[in-house]
Amino acid sequence: MILSGGMDSTTAAYIAKSEGYEIVALHFDYRQRTQRREHEAFDAICDALAVANRYVIDLPFFEQIGASALTDASIDVPTGGIEEGVPVTYVPFRNGIFLSIAAAVAEKERAEALYIGVVEEDSSGYPDCREDFIAAMQKAINLGTKEETNLVIKTPLVHLKKEDIVKTALEYGVPLELTWSCYQNEDEACGVCDSCRLRLKGFEKAGIEDPIAYKIRP
């Protein structure tokens, strides 16, 4: 289970648990702006799920290549609303790299499935969230691993809107107060970055109040 500590991956983890899987949790510290807070959320969610087998992978090279507002301090996180096209918060091929590393861990652990909380709603901005990309990665992973390795990449949220994810999270008893989605703040969610806006919009459409604290609630 690739677990960032955000609402989507946490909900996917709870779905995986409900389907009877023993969870191996995998988290990436890739020098993102909110690395400390995301790591804290990961630990809290793993505790809530009683996950004993946890991996935290250090990936400093994303900071080295830059090109994303999440990893390059010289690029401001946009706060003016969600824009068309690939946003500056896109981290080059991040999910492809995450899935490749997760495949290595999964092969070592003799896992049957690899869960990731990608959502097609994000795909207009993030090409590595698209279902066809995930299908291509699954094929490549199984071609490039041992014959006895036969991984299925599961994306239980891929066709859901954010408000549906909120409702699904509540159905599965996800502790949403432990999750973190903000792109730029670690102590109090900003409320104005793309990720905060998308999350707050989802809660609003679901008719539920987001349990985390925000500096601004638009």
Automatic annotation (TrEMBL):
InterPro entries to which the protein is assigned, alphabetical: QueC, Rossmann-like_a/b/a_fold
Keywords: ATP-binding, Ligase, Metal-binding, Nucleotide-binding, Queuosine biosynthesis, Zinc
Reactions catalysed, as given in the entry: 7-carboxy-7-carbaguanine + NH4(+) + 2 ATP = 7-cyano-7-carbaguanine + 2 AMP + 2 diphosphate + 2 H(+)
EC numbers: 6.3.4.20
Similarity-based family: Belongs to the QueC family.
NCBIfam families from the UniProt entry: 7-cyano-7-deazaguanine synthase QueC
PANTHER family attached to this UniProt entry: 7-CYANO-7-DEAZAGUANINE SYNTHASE
HAMAP family associated with the record: QueC
Name this polypeptide is given: 7-cyano-7-deazaguanine synthase
Cofactor(s) the record lists: Zn(2+)
Listed pathway(s): Purine metabolism; 7-cyano-7-deazaguanine biosynthesis
Broad class of enzyme this protein falls into: ligase
UniProt binding sites for ATP: L3, S4, G5, G6, M7, D8, S9, T10, T11, A12, A13
Organism per entry: Hydrogenimonas cancrithermarum
Gene (UniProt): queC
Stored SUPFAM superfamilies: Adenine nucleotide alpha hydrolases-like (SSF52402)
Record note on cofactor: Binds 1 zinc ion per subunit.
Function, as annotated: Catalyzes the ATP-dependent conversion of 7-carboxy-7-deazaguanine (CDG) to 7-cyano-7-deazaguanine (preQ(0)).
Annotated transmembrane regions: none
Binding site for Zn(2+): C182, C190, C193, C196
